[in-house]
Structures are given as C-alpha cells and as structure tokens.
Design goal:
Helix content: 40-55%
Shape: rod-shaped
Order of helices and strands: HHHEEHH
Number of strands: 2
Number of domains: 2
Structural class: mainly alpha
Largest sheet: 2 strands, antiparallel
Length: 168
C-alpha cells in the first residue's frame, strides 16, 4: 500500500487536509490509522477547528472513526459513507489518487479498534450477545458434565449388577 506521504491534500478548497481530502483518501483505501499517522506527522496540514482538539475533522476521525455529516451551511449538502464529502474542489480540479507500484492489500487495513469505533452502534448488541453466549456456554458445559456423571453412574450400576450376577 502507498505510504502516508502519498496522502494528498489538494481535493478541497486549499492545500490543507479537510473533509474532501479525507473522503478521497478513504475511498482510495487509506485507513484511519494511516491518516491519523499522517496528520500527527504533518499537523500544519490541519487548519482552524480541524486541528487536534479543535472539535473538527481530526477529532471526528479519532472519536467517531469517520467525518461528520453535512450541517448548516455546508455545501455541497452531500454525505458519503465516510461522512460529509467536503468542499467542492476549487484548489486542484485534477486531483486524483492514481495507481501505485506496490500491490494494494485486499484485506481491511483498519485496526480492530477502528472497526469497533466504526460500529459503535453495534457494541451494546454485541456485548449482550456475548453475555448470552457465555451464559448458554456455561449451561451447556454444566449439562454435559451432568450427563457424563449420569453415564458414569449408569455404567457403575451396570458393572455392579454384572458382578453380582456372576457372584451368585
């Protein structure tokens, strides 16, 4: 996969890293962790509220695993699966991610934490299923132990009966 230096910042209204750059990078297959690494190494690419701790794009990526949806006076008023698509590209209309020399990994490049962050709405459901599975698993294991003890008792009784019939 391309390295973080290949992350482009010319998809929106300037050469800073904004929502349009984020969407383009994610659509190209660059993971949130690689984007965060790039932004941490290049903090000057974030301006205004998009800086770390400013409540904008950087914090949205860290906190929600995606950019926010459009709001208020944002134009265009369009969202993608990665959040608001960002400003129309007035800075470099020819900006595009192109082919790279290295093969693109076909596996998901997000970390497990990112995947959980992206599916926060599923966490309570998954947790309840995990608890129910554990309870069922414990009950099944207990039932299997009881069943095994019953078979051992039955075999012991059968052996005693065989021994008694042979003795007489």
């Amino acid at each position: 996969m391309a390295n973080s230096m290949d992350i482009r910042t010319d998809f929106g209204g300037g050469d800073d890293f904004g929502h349009a750059d984020y969407r383009a990078a994610r659509e190209y297959g660059i993971s949130n962790s690689r984007i965060r690494d790039f932004l941490d190494a290049n903090p000057s690419k974030l301006i205004g509220k998009n800086i770390a701790g400013g409540g904008g794009l950087y914090d949205e990526i860290v906190d929600a695993g995606r950019a926010r949806d459009f709001r208020g006076t944002d134009t265009p008023r369009i969202n993608s699966k990665y959040g608001w698509v960002g400003n129309t590209n007035a800075f470099n209309p020819d900006a595009a991610y192109g082919p790279i020399e290295e093969p693109i990994e076909t596996t998901n490049t997000n970390t497990l934490d990112e995947e959980l962050d992206n599916n926060k709405h599923l966490n309570p459901i998954l947790r309840s299923l995990e608890i129910k599975y554990c309870r069922v698993s414990i009950k099944v294991k207990a039932w299997m132990r009881i069943r095994k003890m019953i078979w051992i008792l039955i075999l012991q009784i059968a052996l005693k009966l065989v021994y008694l019939t042979i003795s007489f």
